[in-house]
Amino acid sequence: MGKYLLRLYITGRTPQGNRAIANLQRICQAELDGKYEMEVIDVIEDPQAAEDARIIATPTLIKALPPPLRRIIGDLSNKEKVLIGLDLSSPEDEEGHGHG
Amino acid sequence: MAEPAQRPSVTKSPTGIEGFDHISLGGIPTGRTTLVSGSAGSAKTIFAAQFLAEGIRQYDQAGVFVTFEESAADIRANVSSLGWDVADWEAAGKWAFVDAAPQPGDEVVVSGAFDLGALVVRVEAAVRRTGADRVAIDSLGAVFSRFENEVIVRAELFRLASALKGMGVTSVMTAERTSEYGEISRHGVEEFVTDNVVILRNVLEGEKRRRTVEVLKFRGTIHQKGEYPFTIMPDQGIVVIPLSAIELDQRSSYTRISSGNVELDAMCGGGFFRDSVILVSGATGCGKTLTSTEFIGGGVDNGERSLLMAFEESRDQLSRNASGWGRDFDRYEREGLLKVVALYPESAGLEDHLIRIKREIASFKPNRVAVDSLSALERVSSIKGFREFVISLTSFIKHQEIAGLFTATTNSLLGGESVTETHISTITDAIILLRYVELFGEMKRGLTVLKMRGSAHDKEIRAFTIDGRGMHIGAAFRNVTGILAGHPRHVPSAEIERLDQLFRPAGPRGGD
Q1: Confidence at residue B95, expressed as pLDDT on a 0 to 100 scale
Q2: Which secondary-structure segment (H or E) carries B454?
């Protein structure tokens, strides 16, 4: 499996943004075993980045690599949805695990 | 926090959309958001785009277009048919898109709470970058269908509206309606987004589509009430027809102009008034086209320019008719004293015809306008639409301080009144009736001036003949009654004399 390139867009350091960063770090450490690169982009500091990536909602996580490109919107508190978005969800893997 | 004691009153910014600023009494509230709500196909996107386009073209104000539905590329292409080169404006820094349309093949997963902070940031950045005074957002409904969580979307749109207010830009947001006469918009967005609501309608009325615009509310300021028809013109966009908002402020002159017929001038008390509208009504073949031809000829004889809007006959037919009455349309046109525009009534909606006529008048600058015939135009419209058309055209002609002559066809050969006449007789300044009169097995033609606002006029019904030099009005029909009713009846001379005696004053008086 290739390396994951993840970009997380947030609007300022709000509790919601911070929550998304923490949730993403936790999921990546648990599931991606170091094979990822994560970039946090604050659109207030870089509106053009939001324009280029056509971000409307924040937080938005974009899985740039591996393809296909996917967008996950929200503070990433629903881990299963995040795993679906990252194409990491396979029924055998996650069955039986408790909620985080 | 206390409000400052002196609140600034609501001022308005002209949109530049023709006619709209008239019915909104000056445009939309400055520095605020106006909701433009309409059903599918009601021209919401055009309204939003035109708001920006006219800002650039007329007021040198930059604009930001936020699109949630169509991509920026689609909008660029769609509005190019209206003559707006958006790409050019973008290059000049006058127009910026915030493209928030869904990406093709874009699969979005939602995990947890979110906001539309990035959108607000992008809009703010675009406004700062272009120095925009205007923002258009198209459309709110698309945002709701994008994100399932309606509570969040409402809150975030409210935040966007606040941000726009904070930046002091004047903005337009579009929203969908499910029915033409139901709730203001789907999702009830108007409740939290804006104090100002404009509604666009596209109603099916007697098999004809009729577009109207209504200013429903402007908080803290006034506007015209009710629906006004509008149309979408190529190379221009929305054109609102401000009917009853038309002010009756045109000056009335006492200057007389010739009808082109000496006898008719005499009957009218010395000719038509220069800025009046005359209706000529009669059955087919009775002399209406001749009357309008002479009206044009009368202008040419005085070196005046005439515009003939023909809806029944082709240019060549009209020219041939005219030459049969001693009037050379080809020469008049060569000399620049006449312009004939022949159109099929069915070729366009009435609103489009109206704008076409106005444009011809504005560009040719005639002294006289003849429309032959109005009845032909009536076929392509509802009664209400037709009345509005005539009011609007009449008002426009009077504003130009020129004379207008309209013809109308009656359905029955003898007597009767035309439908056209019934609907518009109160609007016109003068009415001339042309009638067939059947007498002793012979068809004669009769003419009477039924109404002549602001002037004495001949009230007799006169017989007239037509020959190679035009119309010749002769003596009144004596001894005949019931001509206008369509039942001419000969009255013996003895009877007339007896009636005459009844009303003769006691003293002697000079005869005539």
Answers
A1: 97
A2: none
Is B6 a residue whose pLDDT tops 80?
Answer: no
Find, among B53, B48, B83, the residue nearest to B68 by Cα. B48
Is residue B74 helix, strand or coil?
A: helix
Catalytic status, residue B497: no
Confidence category of residue B192, pLDDT binned at 50, 70, 90: low
- A55: contact with B, CB 8 A cutoff: yes
* Token digits of residue B324: 């049969």
pLDDT tens profile A3-22 = 899 999 999 999 999 999 99
What is residue B509's three-state secondary structure?
Answer: coil
- Nearest CA-CA partner of A36 in A63, A60, A6: A6
Distance CA B79, CA B88 (A): 13
pLDDT by residue (tens digit) across B127-183?
999 999 999 999 888 888 888 788 888 888 889 989 999 999 999 999 988 777 777
Q: Do A16 and B114 touch (CB under 8 A)?
A: yes
Residue A72 has pLDDT above 50, yes or no: yes
DSSP-derived pairing of the beta strands A4-10 and A60-65: antiparallel
Q: What average pLDDT does chain B have?
A: 85
Q: How far apart are CA B444 and CA B20, in angstroms?
A: 50
Tens of pLDDT, residues A9-58: 999 999 999 999 999 999 999 888 888 999 999 999 999 999 999 999 99
Cα angle B428, B431, B437; round to 5:
155
Q: Is the pLDDT of residue B55 over 80?
A: yes
pLDDT, residue B438, reads: 79
**In terms of Cα–Cα distance, which of B74, B70, B122, B163 is closest to A52?**
B122
B62-66, B110-114, B188-192, B482-486, range with the lowest pLDDT: B188-192
Q: Are B170 and B28 in contact (CB under 8 A)?
A: yes
**Does A71 reach chain B within 8 Å, measured CB to CB?**
yes
Q: Is A62 in the B-facing interface, judged by CB distances under 8 Å?
A: no
**Secondary structure string (H, E, C) spanning B263-286:** HHHHHCCCCEECCCEEEEEECCCC
Size of interface A-B (CB pairs under 8 A): 101
Backbone phi and psi for residue B174, each to the nearest 5 degrees, phi listed first: -100, 150
Cα–Cα distance for residue pair B19/B237, rounded to 1 Å: 12
Q: Identify whether the C-beta of residue B412 lies closer than 8 Å to the C-beta of residue B487.
A: no
Q: How confident is the model at residue A66 (pLDDT cuts 50, 70, 90)?
A: confident
B205 a catalytic residue: no
Is residue B174 within 8 A of residue B139, CB to CB? The reply is yes
Looking at B18, B54, B69, B214, which residue is catalytic?
B69
Q: Are B322 and B293 in contact (CB under 8 A)?
A: yes
For B178-305, list the strands marked E by DSSP. 196-205, 208-218, 227-233, 237-240, 256-257, 272-273, 277-282
Cross-chain Cβ contact A85/B109 below 8 Å: yes
B116 and A57 in contact by Cβ < 8 A?
yes
CA-to-CA dists, residue B299 to A78, B147, B370, B406, angstroms: 82, 66, 11, 15
Contact call for A58 and B114, based on CB within 8 A: yes
Is the minimum CB–CB distance between A72 and chain B shorter than 8 Å? yes
Closest CA to B477 of B452, B444, B501, B441: B444
